[in-house]
Amino acid sequence: EVQLVESGGGLVQAGGSLRLSCAASGFTFDDYAIGWFRQAPGKEREGVSCISSSDGSTYYADSVKGRFTISSDNAKNTVYLQMNSLKPEDTAVYYCAADVVCVAGMRSWGQGTQVTVSS
């Protein structure tokens, strides 16, 4: 059974940093892509970043480029999202998801972690 568990969310002031973690189990980590998505109240879910565990390819939404960094520790089956220079508009529930490739509708999802950025 695929399991994804996010952690690292919290409350931070604008300009601050947080690092989210996504611990994965139940599948061959090296063969999958892990994505980070977010959903703010009243808004549609949006893709934030994605990494292919097999070759390390990364993708970022324009809104987070230069501020967020995705990385993967294949030995720990964990993907991280380092978020710097946070803005109030980054406030959302952040989810990690897994599939064989980075796509909008990934097959397996975690439960989410709240990130709140105060102004």
Protein architecture, described:
By secondary structure, the chain is mainly beta. The protein has strands spanning 3-7, 10-13, 18-25, 33-39, 46-52, 58-60, 68-73, 78-83, 92-99, 108-109, 113-118. The strands form two sheets. Strands 2, 4, 5, 6, 9, 10 and 11 form a seven-stranded mixed sheet that branches. Strands 1-3-8-7 form a four-stranded antiparallel sheet, with no helix packed on it. Strand 4 and strand 5 (46-52) form a beta hairpin.
Layout of strands and helices, then pairs:
Layout: E1 3-7, E2 10-13, E3 18-25, E4 33-39, E5 46-52, E6 58-60, E7 68-73, E8 78-83, E9 92-99, E10 108-109, E11 113-118
Parallel strand pairs: 2-11
Antiparallel strand pairs: 1-3, 3-8, 4-5, 4-9, 5-6, 7-8, 9-10, 9-11
Give Rg in angstroms.
Answer: 13 Å
Specify the overall morphology: globular
Query: How many strands, what sense, and barrel or not for the largest sheet?
Result: 7 strands, mixed
- N-to-C SSE series? EEEEEEEEEEE
Work out the oligomeric state of the chains in this entry. single chain
Distance linking N and C termini: 40 Å
Spans of 5+ residues with little confidence (pLDDT < 50)? none
- Helicity level, as a percent range? under 10%
Strand segment count: 11
The chain-level mean pLDDT equals 95
Beta content comes to: over 45%
**Helix segment count?**
0
What structural category characterises the helix and strand content?
mainly beta
